[in-house]
Amino acid sequence: MEKRFDAVAWMRKRRADIDKEDEGLTWEEKARKTADLLQNDPLWKRLKRRVVAPPTSPAPRAAGGKR
Question: For residue 63, is pLDDT > 80?
Answer without folding.
Answer: no
